[in-house]
């Protein structure tokens, strides 16, 4: 077999039809800062998989390689309905790869970009699934470190009671935490900083509670339509995560009960000690806070009652619901 020395020259099409470690590459399905994900055919088991090929500069980083191997194995060992099953992780010709279940659906990043903020009901359904996955990982001693919408895949659920099935993916594959702790060279792309916990930024020890923070940023964004902190540059964003208070969620979502605000504030606490002890505890608190029902929507002035030149009241927002229309 000829050695593939340039699996990553950047051209997306060049690997199509090629075989890598027993997988035939069929189609590119997405790319992030550190990898390209393909739909591929597992030629041994005759099934479709998602094959993730990590960028070669990561394969050259010993710290990353060790963690990749360790955490891919650890993630593969967790059998959880809301964690993407990893079939195999390995290396071929200097390229690190992961073969995992091919999830038919959309990642949450694309879904939010397409649908906008989601209804509280849909949010709580998806959040509870992701929270159960994170808590299960934590029980296995794994910290995800990169909880963000791009790492949550949403597939069609089984029935109208379960319209979506959410999967968490990419354990320990964050380049961000490596770079924040100085493992990668300065100037490399580190991905989004919208969901990074204060202790990750300051290089303090990171445990499950950093995922509670990242997860809370994601839940905030699902409901508000934007992450808790919006700043013009990365330095300002890192500062905000460490020192600023997030705007109350109800500023963006006045339809939510005000009790939701302290729940988000606790989950986003700067000190891990002040956060919820688990992701499910956070979701339970959010459910309880929003269960009281939707507060009365402010009185909309009638057309006749408006002064000349007065701004027309905005129509009440339509939150995406449901994400998937059920097949009958
Ligand atoms: N198992 C899977 N099944 C189907 N699609 C997937 C699967 N894993 C990843 N994808 C798709 O591939 C895209 C790229 O994934 P990737 O992890 O490389 O990037 P990302 O998570 O957006 O960013 P980052 O590089 O920061 O992790 C995902 O956003 C998702 O749409
Ligand atoms: Mg990812």
Query: What portion of residues belong to β-strands?
Result: 15-25%
Q: Give the distance, in angstroms, between the N- and C-terminal Cα atoms.
A: 49 Å
Give the CATH superfamily of the largest domain: Transferase(Phosphotransferase) domain 1
Can you name the CATH architecture of the largest domain? Answer: Orthogonal Bundle
Strand-and-helix sequence, N→C? EEEEHHEEEHHEEHHHHHHH
What class would the helix/strand composition place it in? Answer: alpha+beta
**Percent range of helical residues:** 25-40%
The strand count comes to 9
CA-based shape: globular
Which segments are poorly predicted (pLDDT under 50) over 5 or more consecutive residues?
1-6, 176-189, 296-308
Overall radius of gyration? 21 Å
CATH topology descriptor of the largest domain:
Transferase(Phosphotransferase), domain 1
Number of domains: 2
- List cofactors, ions and other ligands: adenosine-5'-triphosphate, magnesium ion
Largest sheet: 6 strands, antiparallel
User: Order of strands side by side in the largest beta sheet?
Assistant: 1-2-3-4-6-5
Keywords: ATP-binding, Kinase, Nucleotide-binding, Serine/threonine-protein kinase, Transferase
Region (Disordered): 294-328
Binding site for ATP: 52
InterPro entries: Kinase-like_dom_sf, Prot_kinase_dom, Protein_kinase_ATP_BS, Ser/Thr_kinase_AS
């Amino acid at each position: 077999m000829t050695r593939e020395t340039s699996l990553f020259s950047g051209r997306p099409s060049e690997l199509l039809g090629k075989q890598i470690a027993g997988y035939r590459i069929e189609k590119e399905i997405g790319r992030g800062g550190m990898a390209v994900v393909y739909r591929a055919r597992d030629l041994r088991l005759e099934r479709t998989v998602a094959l993730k090929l990590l960028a070669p500069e990561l394969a050259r980083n010993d710290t990353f390689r060790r963690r990749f191997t360790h955490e891919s194995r650890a993630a593969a060992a967790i059998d959880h309905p809301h964690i993407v099953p990893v079939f195999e992780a390995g290396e071929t010709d200097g390229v690190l790869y992961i073969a995992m279940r091919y999830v038919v659906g959309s990642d949450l990043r694309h879904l939010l970009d397409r649908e906008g903020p989601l209804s509280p009901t849909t949010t709580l359904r998806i959040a509870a699934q992701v929270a159960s996955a994170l808590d299960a990982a934590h029980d296995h001693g794994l910290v995800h470190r990169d909880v963000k919408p791009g790492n949550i895949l949403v597939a069609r659920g089984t029935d109208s009671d379960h319209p979506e099935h959410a999967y968490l993916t990419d354990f320990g594959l964050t380049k961000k935490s490596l770079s924040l702790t100085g493992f990668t060279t300065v100037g490399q792309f580190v991905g989004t900083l919208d969901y990074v916990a204060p202790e990750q930024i300051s290089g303090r020890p990171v445990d499950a509670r950093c995922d509670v923070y990242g997860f809370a940023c994601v839940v905030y964004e699902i409901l508000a339509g934007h992450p808790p902190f919006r700043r013009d540059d990365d330095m300002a964003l890192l500062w905000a995560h460490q020192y600023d208070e997030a705007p109350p969620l109800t500023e963006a979502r006045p339809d939510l009960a005000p009790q939701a605000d302290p729940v988000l504030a606790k989950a986003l606490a700067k000190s891990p000690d002040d956060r919820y002890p688990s992701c499910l505890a956070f979701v339970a608190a959010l459910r309880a806070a929003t269960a009281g029902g939707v507060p009365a929507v402010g009185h909309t002035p009638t057309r006749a009652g408006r002064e000349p030149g007065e701004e027309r009241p905005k129509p009440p927002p339509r939150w995406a619901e449901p994400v998937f229309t059920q097949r009958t």
